[in-house]
Fold this protein.
Amino acid sequence: MGLKASSPPRTPRSGPRSLWQLELRATLSRRRALAIKMGFPLLLVIPLVATNAPQFFAGMLLTILIAMVGTVGTGVSVTRSRGSGWLDRLAVLPLPRWRISLEIFFAGWLVDCVQATIVFLVLELAQRPDPFAILSTWLLALATLAFSGAIGLAVATLTDNAGEAMLFLAVILAPMLFLSGLFTGVPATGIRYWVAQFLPFSYLSDGFQLCLHGNPPYGSSLSFLLAAIAFGLVSAGASAALGRALLARGA
């Protein structure tokens, strides 16, 4: 009697189950670029805390770091994805465009969050700030990364060239940082005061100053927490709304 041939064992699939996991896996596969991303924040935060830089200027530089990580990370990477034809393939998937855009945004935001968390770990070890102050500022930084990432995603709908994307980001981001009071402080009255209330960078700069034992003129840990929730929700909604424009250029 012949033996019945046994069927080969099934190999479990270990691939990503969603688009954001696929995007994240692609980012993590570029190890040298990932190492540079993770090490870059240390080049700024360690000298700032080691030399006891003035709180206002340290808060300004750390806020600019968070803004640049969010905008450049998303804007340039999505623009390069279009150049490689990746967005062409995503545009034909049977998925809502808002979901595709949101998952691209979410994958980039997760990597940016790790970079920001490295900064706060150094601040915690070197400065020992108030626990609620550093927690609320950390959450605000994550929301600021989301806000900056939405800006980067919007820029990616305007150009197919990474160099042009960088130029657009500089033109958009520089006035926002100025109106947020990063260079001169937020005035007590006037239009710049009111504009600063609708930008996360002004809150984040004050939060960093608070973590560095400074005395920022505006803001508190509770206001930072509320601002984090508001800007996080707005950024996620804006990123989803950009799906049609983003994939229309990729189609």
